[in-house]
Amino acid sequence: MRPKMISLNTRLTIGRLGRRGEGVAQGPGGPVFIPYALPHETIIAEIGGERGTLVEVLTPSPDRIAPFCPYFSRCGGCAVQTLAAEAYAQWKCSLVTGALQRAALKGEISGLADAHGVGRRRATFHARYPQGRTKVGFTQARSHEIVEILFCPVLAPSMGAALPAARALAQALAGKGKPLDILVTATASGLDIDLRGPGPLSEGETQSLIRIAADFNLARLSNHGVTVISRRTPVLVMGRALVAPPPGAFLQATEAGEEMLAARVCAHTAGARHIADLFSGIGTFTLRMAEFARVDAFDHDEAALRALKKAAHVEGLHEVRVMQRDLFKRPLLPQEMSSYEAAVFDPPRAGAAQQAPALAASEVPVIVAVSCNAETFARDAAILCGGGYELLEVEPVDQFRHSPHVEIVATFRRRAQKPRRIRRLLG
């Protein structure tokens, strides 16, 4: 493959901000994406193919502000820090409106809801060992290169010891020389850390890690899901319930984000007496909806479902049934949903391409979708609307502030009659 030609010192005008937070300009051969450039700016960039590197801002955007983090533009964790709040909110909303327009969908889209709260309560740090030196931090954008950081201003105060603990753990495992990912979650009982990549631990390594866990007062330390030491059970508060998550369990990025998403889901399903929670995980929505309805929770993750089942045994909750099921390979069928008055689905970023057609063919009166990917949400929403559902309300939620990620909560209502095509498919 021939290397891309590099055009030096090319003058460009940025037309818009792209889906990844990059400035988009019209270059000599088509669109060019330049990280850290803003709409309406005149810039100098080096161009290689459709990618560009910002060299100089000649005419800054009136919405340009100073970044608050010294690692910005080197660390790949934040894509947009220099855009003023109002323009930033408009861009985040445009990610949703644009995806819906491309899917030929219309719906009431509310303004961006800020769910950053006090900051992110979970992060994955990366450790590498170039020339025998330990480097811990985040990766550069579109690169495997590690940017060493001493602090991260978007993390919650409860994550204050996360980076020092990660560095100590990485240093203890330096002798292996293997790339290491360190997943840190702040829980009500302390930091919960799961290591990925070191492989089996020797007795000496295990003892070193146990000492570090004590030094940093970790609640639990695990190696790829296997507990090394549990000094306290990690606990998450979800409504009336206390959940003890398995190591490395999926969790909403911020506590404020979880509370906001759960409140929206509960509001949209209020009045339903029997609800299906698809892709339930550890019960973020299940346990809160169980305060007013019977809930059946479906997920493929056995460990997450065990945690949910145990947490559901608390006074004041309706019956919660947990069922292990891979909804990508074996989606819940329309006839299996006949008893539900509402259904909630919160799939991974890939969306629910297999489950959405079955939902579209069902008789469930109300469906609530939660998504972290505007494109796959729009695809799944189009399937539901094609099956006779009406898209009522779409709310963008920003818990990944300064990133190109946006959460979405949307409500669908079954129309009185299904389209003929769907009726024929159901016989």
Low-confidence segments, given as residue ranges, are 420-427
What is the class of the largest domain in the CATH system?
Alpha Beta
Percent of residues in helices: 10-25%
Number of strands: 23
Q: For the terminal residues, how far apart are their CA atoms?
A: 53 Å
Number of helices: 9
Strand content: 25-35%
Q: How many structural domains in the coordinates?
A: 3
Q: What name does the CATH topology of the largest domain carry?
A: Rossmann fold
CATH superfamily of the largest domain: Vaccinia Virus protein VP39
Named CATH architecture of the largest domain: 3-Layer(aba) Sandwich
Gross morphology: flat
**Rg from alpha-carbon coordinates:** 23 Å
- Estimate the mean pLDDT confidence: 94
Give the helix/strand class. alpha/beta
State the major sheet.
9 strands, mixed
Q: Nutshell version of this structure?
A:
This protein has 427 residues and is of the alpha/beta class. Helices cover 22% and strands 31% of the residues. The strands form 4 sheets. Strands 6, 7, 17, 18, 19, 20, 21, 22 and 23 form a 9-stranded mixed β-sheet that branches.
